[in-house]
Amino acid sequence: MKDLENNKALTITLKTIFGLEEVLGEELAELGYTKYKVLNRAVQLEGTWKDVYYLNLHLRCAISVLVQIASFRIRSEDDLYNKAMKIDWTGYFDLDKTFAVKGAVFSDLFSHTQYPFLVVKDAIADTFRDRYDERPDVNIKSPQVLFDVYINKNDVTVSMNTSGAPLFQRGYRDEIGEAPLNEVVAAGLIRMSGWDRKSPLTDVFCGSGTILIEAALLASGIPSVIERQHFAFKNFKNYDAELWEGILAKATKYVKELPCEISGSDMSAEMVTKARRNLGRLSVGRFVKTSVASFDEIKQPAESGVMISNPPYGERMGEEIDALYEQLGDWMKTEMKGFNCWVLSSNMEAYKNLGLRPDRKIKLFNGDLECSFRKYSIYAGSKRAKFQNNEA
Asked: What is the CATH number of the domain that holds 22?
């Protein structure tokens, strides 16, 4: 297959979470990829298979890395099957590999959004049966090979999902709480905060430690997926083990110290224990300080820095959540002077109880929850005095 050749120019689509498109673009530019196009929940660029491997390893704000193999227009359900049958699926993977078809459908041609995936699945199976009189097995939960089908009205794009399982499955986190923060979201929050990777960073609702871990990995330059073993590109016919091992060998895996102080706390001893276990799986974990404490027991950690926290959303907690946010706002005013404090929540009413006016509001999703990520600059003196000093 021509698109399996390692030096052929490929259309690479990086899927992400709504609200993280711009920071994913910034991350690409930082890695040296300056030509890209920002889409809805995705960023697109041109590259080679070397880039596909490299991006799977080094991107922190992407969910998956897709390589386009076909695009066409359809007028009916039958069109989708007929055109999918023109793709030589046997050139992409072997009969002994399990596969699945997933994606997104925005088209009136189909009454059920899952149906197109079944159509393409049948086309793949029939292509193998025509050639080998046998078909590969489907495995929806953990396929070895994954294809992505995106349908927008009459336009169809078929891609190889080279990541397989979403890239937020980093491989470092076994211990989680009831409402864990998605790792890709955590990485995106850190980038959005503008943290310079030198000043102190703290999380006073650290839970199982996701923000702390992502911050430590970013500051150290260690890829977030360094502990992950499985990528779908290893199961495609063109997998170049030597190329992949070369890219992996050049990646930073250990550091002797961090260029900054990273600390976290949580009032739940159980959650702090989980955070410590997760941190303990990584070489950078020993540099991150954790403590069992309510946020209002924490004294100002430094003269300046960044706080990023994901407090309880607690829509069902009523007045209790209002009191929590009120206490949080009072504590930030007292103990976080000189800090840029960022708070993620889906509870828009609770925000009002902070008693602070946000400098920025960014809309994004944490799982299925629409959230707001808000910045509160806590000045050491009065805000007016701060501006007067800057002008002087």
From this structure: 3.30.2130.30
